[in-house]
Amino acid sequence: MATSQPFRNKETAAAFCDANKAFMLSLLKELPQASNVFYSPFSISTALAMVHLGARTDTLKEMDQVLHFDKMGKETHSAFGGYLEYLSKETGDITLKTANKIYQSMRFKTEETFIKECKKHFKTTAESMDFSQSAEASSKINSWVSQQTKNKIQNLVPADALDALTFMVLINAIYFKGNWKSQFQSENTQKMEFRNEKDKYMTDMMYQKASFRFCYLPDMQMNALDIPYQGDKLSMLVLLPMAVDGLNDLEKKLSERLLNDVIGSLMEKKVEVYLPKFKMESTFKLRPYLSAMGMSSAFDENKADFSGMDKGKDVYISEVFHKAFVEVNEEGSEAAAATAVKMAAKRSIQITPEFRANHPFLFFIRDSVNDVILFSGRFYQPIDTPGKDEL
């Protein structure tokens, strides 16, 4: 990650961050409740931002509203370009890589301007493919995704999702690995109880007493803790409701403004932290969620207008595949995500506080320098089996 400014000005930076948080929260409220969830709002919005380059008329307006690109206006694609450039710079402290790819059909003609704009803003590489050879095509796409995510994301695009009428597949992949600035000592990890409103579990609970940015928000009935990774550029923000069954209420109340207030209220403080070790993988087909959020035209073959990529207006989004993985342990975190868009024809308490995450909580892996959320999750129960949604 670079140290230079990724955005042209403060207004663009604020708009990009606001759009990022607003989309993340809107999607969280659509995803299945009372279950483990992990996803990358940044990966999803980056993949759809490439599609957005080709959207026109009502399709464009709906995408602007759902993805909150209307906050950035004409700066949308250059803002993504600047931030992707920022992320591409190497740093010795953490590994954070993102990559974009377009697979276009050999059978259909794509507007050259669209491909050029994708390359310009998203550093996209483009490749022609025969989608009628579906098994071979999906294998090649999935191999690229696996390579970009250090083998953490496998089989993103199923073979039966591709056919001779597939116009294009656009993909964003993101991978992160970082060690905590203050690591948990493995000898302090013990089996402890974790409970939600339904069940109790015994799980590996990590512990340390150290200085972290922390706040208690009585109005929201929650604690917040920001755990930095080495280099102080990324952190994991954890929102923990006071009540065992308080997460659903917290999610309903949580807004872009409230999240900003939480981040603004964090203060350095010595805290006793109990945090579960966990692995989580989520797989989503996002079409129903994005449609419910108001982006229905893009998925409707009779209404979609992507004439910026196909002058004949003969293409639409048939599905958005998203898969994400996270592991949190004593050393730090590893996270990866990939999104494929298939186009088809302030108040703190005075005593040493305790942050005991022994009931459901939200967590966000964020660029704490630029205030951009890269990954978002809900930890509902300590079970290693993947939380899957196949709607």
From TrEMBL:
What family is this protein classified in? Belongs to the serpin family.
Tell me the organism's taxonomic lineage. Eukaryota, Metazoa, Spiralia, Lophotrochozoa, Mollusca
Q: A Pfam family matched by this chain, by name?
A: Serpin
At the top level, the lineage of the source is Eukaryota
Please give the InterPro entries that the UniProt record associates with this protein.
Serpin_CS, Serpin_dom, Serpin_fam, Serpin_sf, Serpin_sf_1, Serpin_sf_2
One GO cellular component term: extracellular space
Task: Please name the GO terms that the record assigns under molecular function.
Answer: serine-type endopeptidase inhibitor activity
Give TM regions. none
The protein's name is Serpin domain-containing protein
Task: Describe the location of the Serpin domain by residue ranges.
Answer: 25-382
